[in-house]
Write a structure and sequence with these properties.
Largest sheet of chain A: 5 strands, parallel
Number of helices of chain B: 21
Strand content of chain B: 15-25%
Largest interface: A-B, 28 and 33 residues
Strand order of the largest sheet of chain A: 2-1-3-4-5
Distance between the termini of chain B: 66 Å
Shape of chain B: globular
Helix content of chain A: 40-55%
Shape of chain A: globular
Strand content of chain A: 15-25%
Mean pLDDT of chain B: 79
Distance between the termini of chain A: 17 Å
Mean pLDDT of chain A: 91
Number of strands of chain B: 22
Helix content of chain B: 40-55%
Low-confidence stretches of chain A: none
Largest sheet of chain B: 6 strands, mixed
Structural class of chain B: alpha+beta
Radius of gyration of chain B: 30 Å
Order of helices and strands of chain A: EHEHEHEHEH
Oligomer: heterodimer
Strand order of the largest sheet of chain B: 14-18-19-17-16-15
């Protein structure tokens, strides 16, 4: 069965890019969220296998959303989407329970390599 | 040839201050130590006095050297007695430490400290009281007791060598294509720490987090009960890593190494100064402030260059933007490092609390047990500076007003010694400092009455006030329920100043109290003041910033179910109704005819507040600049920042904006 993914980013461009990456690789993007609050809600409803999480978003940051999701589900697989210069934020997110990270701008195969490692398939 | 000693003044001041702090700390701890620990503590005291004497003498500060010398003599005699010095002697030595501190301060200001003859005589006669008899005022120690140096001794290891789990040596290399090797190595560290205890991490954690990874290699030892196959599997699950080696290590002497990041806090106060790393340098905090300022300016300038780049023709834009991205990453890195360098354990301001607790309790004839925890938690130096006096005041307040006399406590079935706790812990991106006592609690009714008597509230307002808000009344200037103003907590800072200081650094103060059970003051503080995450909102023609930490949520005004009661608007939230304010009106801006309105739910007081704005512009990480005169007097503004466009934006302080 295709793995189910939730894509969280406040930029439509990023969400669409990630959706393309996942669709091409046979994943099912089951939901999207534009900010941290929505991410936590969507996670609760959808229980996806994987979340890609932007860090800087309005209302609730990706780090706080990660903390909330991990509190609900300690086994959640969350991959942070960071930019260069956000090293400290990424480390904070890892401390909060994120499984791994990718650095924007990214190549499709980089994202998939990290996803597969995290899901134990690589 | 004469040597100009003034060149050494700075060093003298900082070193002797450290000795004096340690001296006072050890003296206060002395009364709580077990009999076996006393001799080592007295030894430490003697050494501090001795070092001070030497330094003062070489600085030519005769009176200081003489006073330190007499203290050293007395301590030498006490050393011979090998028993716990009586309370009066500790008082005398503490007074000496205070006077010596005053001397050092005077020297720092370029003055020559005056003689302290009466103290010198008191030290001499105290010493005479202990000689020539071998023991005075104390129980002699059995001669055979070995001198155990105080300090953190690993109890488990000292007891019985338990069967230790196996240890694995791990060596990996982060692949060259990885753009953030430090973060990658940090992921490795976290995953390994998730399996057990990590030892011998190379490079050490701080270096690793800063991205300093020679040859991109990381090695560590992992003590875990997980099988080797599982360790290998976890390693294999980390991207951008090649495992160079994984092997089991034979245990030689486990007691010699401590786990990386083992909680550093020893249970009692440290008696002997911890050995300082040989690879540190001292810098003035002002230098760090300047560096941070410059790094902040660089961030702002980078954002401005980015804005300019956007105006270039399409074909020239890409290389400029790429350069700006790189520049931003570098500047952000620099900024983060400087911020990191300013982080200081809260210990620097809590260290003096035991001394203060003892003094206040002694003067009031009370007994108090002060418990400190989490003092290794780090905060921005600037916040610590602002927090030092308020914390002191809260502690005094707890003891002076909070704790009952031993007789009252006995009648209430409480132990004679009152308990005051100062607990510090990290809570998400904030630090929570709680000061609590197990005393009589605050009387919300009396606070209400006092507020009405002083005309701060009407009787109706006061009776409608929930307890949680009534306790906050003690923070109004001039409101104190203590029947008499004692010189102990009444000095200098009042609760209003405590609240102002906490809010001034972007924190919040919360008070909870229960009659007969005690009071708890909770300070929620940001880790740093310099960089804040802002939510930018448009109000009329103005753009204002709200710290994200104060914003709970946002909704589109069109979707928000507002209700109106007696001309005031409310938004339902859970069971409560939250008042709605037009931000423009609060700021005194002309009414705008904005069509697209948004509502922000912000933290303020007990239930929060909803602010109506025209439009949300987004979120931005900005460098906070303090307001200078006369703007700093405007209530409700916490600072200003400059956006990439060059536009200055005021940063609101929501709780104070609404304060009457």
């Amino acid at each position: 069965m295709a793995k189910r993914v939730l894509v969280v980013d406040d930029a439509i461009f990023m969400r669409n890019t990630l959706k393309d990456v996942f669709a091409a690789a046979g994943f099912e993007v089951v939901g999207e969220a534009q900010h941290g609050l929505e991410a936590v809600e969507r996670y609760k409803q959808l229980q996806p296998d994987l979340v890609t999480m932007d860090i800087v978003m309005p209302y609730k940051s990706g780090i706080e959303a990660t903390r909330d999701i991990i509190k609900m589900d300690p086994r959640a697989n969350i991959i942070m989407c960071s930019a260069l210069g956000q090293e400290n934020l990424v480390m904070e997110a890892i401390e909060a329970g994120a499984a791994d990270f990718v650095v924007k701008p990214f190549k499709h195969e980089d994202v998939l390599a990290v996803v597969k490692k995290v899901l134990g398939e690589g | 040839m004469t040597v100009d000693m003034s060149r050494y003044l700075g060093l003298f001041v900082s070193e002797s201050t450290e000795h004096l702090d340690a001296l006072a700390r050890t003296l206060v701890a002395l009364e709580k130590l077990s009999a076996e620990e006393v001799p080592a503590a007295v030894d430490a005291l003697f050494r501090h006095a001795h070092s001070l004497k030497g330094m003062a003498a070489s600085m030519g500060l005769e009176a200081t050297a003489q006073l330190a010398h007499r203290a050293e003599d007395l301590l030498e005699t006490l050393r011979g007695a090998r028993s716990r010095p009586p309370r009066e002697t500790v008082d005398l030595l503490l007074a000496t430490a205070d006077t010596l501190s005053a001397h050092v301060r005077a020297a720092a200001a370029g003055e020559v400290p005056g003689r302290a003859d009466s103290l010198v005589r008191a030290l001499e006669s105290a010493r005479a009281g202990f000689t020539p008899g071998p023991v005075a005022g104390g129980r002699p120690l059995p001669a055979a007791v070995p001198q155990v140096p105080p300090g953190p001794v690993a109890p488990a290891e000292a007891a019985a060598p338990a069967v230790l789990p196996p240890r694995f040596a791990v060596k990996v290399q982060v692949v060259a294509s990885c753009r953030v090797p430090g973060v990658r190595a940090f992921v490795l560290y976290r995953k390994m720490a998730g399996l057990g205890n990590v030892f011998a991490l190379t490079p050490p954690l701080d270096e690793l987090k800063a991205g300093r990874l020679p040859r991109n290699e990381v090695s560590l030892e992992l003590e875990t009960s997980a099988p080797e196959a599982q360790v290998a599997e976890v390693l294999g699950g980390i991207p951008e890593l090649s495992v160079l080696s994984l092997s089991r290590v034979a245990l030689v002497s486990p007691s010699t190494s401590a786990p990386v990041q083992a909680p550093p806090g020893p249970q009692g106060p440290r008696l002997v100064g911890a050995p300082e790393s040989a690879r540190t340098v001292r810098v003035r905090t002002e230098l760090l402030d300047d560096l941070l300022d410059l790094a902040g300016e660089l961030l702002i300038t980078t954002a401005q260059v980015r804005e300019l780049g956007r105006q270039l023709p399409e074909e020239q834009r890409a290389p400029v933007e790429e350069g700006v991205d790189r520049l931003h990453a570098l500047v952000k890195g620099l900024h983060d490092r400087v911020m990191g360098a300013r982080m200081t354990p809260i210990q620097v301001i809590t260290d003096r609390l035991p001394r203060v607790a003892r003094d206040v309790a002694r003067r009031k004839g009370l007994e108090v047990e002060l418990e400190l925890s989490g003092t290794e938690t780090e905060l921005d130096r600037v916040i610590l500076d602002e927090l030092a006096d308020p914390l002191l005041h809260l502690l005094r307040n707890c003891i002076d007003h909070g704790l009952e006399s031993p007789a009252e406590r006995a009648a209430a079935g409480k132990p004679a010694a009152g308990r005051v706790r100062v607990e510090v812990r990290r809570e998400r991106d904030r630090v929570l400092v709680e000061v609590s006592d197990d005393g009589r609690g605050m009387d919300a009714g009396r606070l209400r009455t006092a507020a009405v008597e002083r005309g701060l509230l009407t009787a109706a307002q006061a009776s409608a006030l929930p307890d949680a808000e009534a306790w906050m009344l003690c923070c109004l200037p001039g409101l104190s329920t203590a029947a008499e103003v004692s010189d102990i907590s009444g000095r200098g800072v009042g609760m209003d100043a405590v609240k102002r200081a906490v809010e001034g650094v972007g924190g919040t103060l919360d008070i909870r109290s229960e009659a007969g059970k005690g009071t708890r003051f909770s300070l929620r503080l940001p880790l740093t003041v310099a960089v804040v995450n802002l939510l930018l909102a448009e109000v009329g023609t103005e753009v204002v910033g709200l710290p994200l930490s104060q914003v709970v949520g946002a909704v589109d005004a069109a979707e928000a179910p507002l209700s109106e009661q007696r001309g005031r608007r409310f938004m339902p939230r859970g069971d409560a109704l939250v008042p709605v304010h037009a931000l423009g009106r609060l700021l005194g801006l002309p009414e705008s005819a904005g069509t697209h309105r948004a509502l922000l739910l912000a933290e303020a007081g007990a239930g929060g507040v909803v602010l109506e704005v025209d439009r949300l512009l987004g979120q931005q990480e900005v460098v906070l600049k303090a307001l200078s005169r006369p703007l700093d007097a405007v209530s409700g503004l916490s600072g200003v920042t400059i956006l990439g466009s060059g536009r200055p934006v005021f940063i609101l302080d929501v709780p104070r904006l609404l304060a009457p």
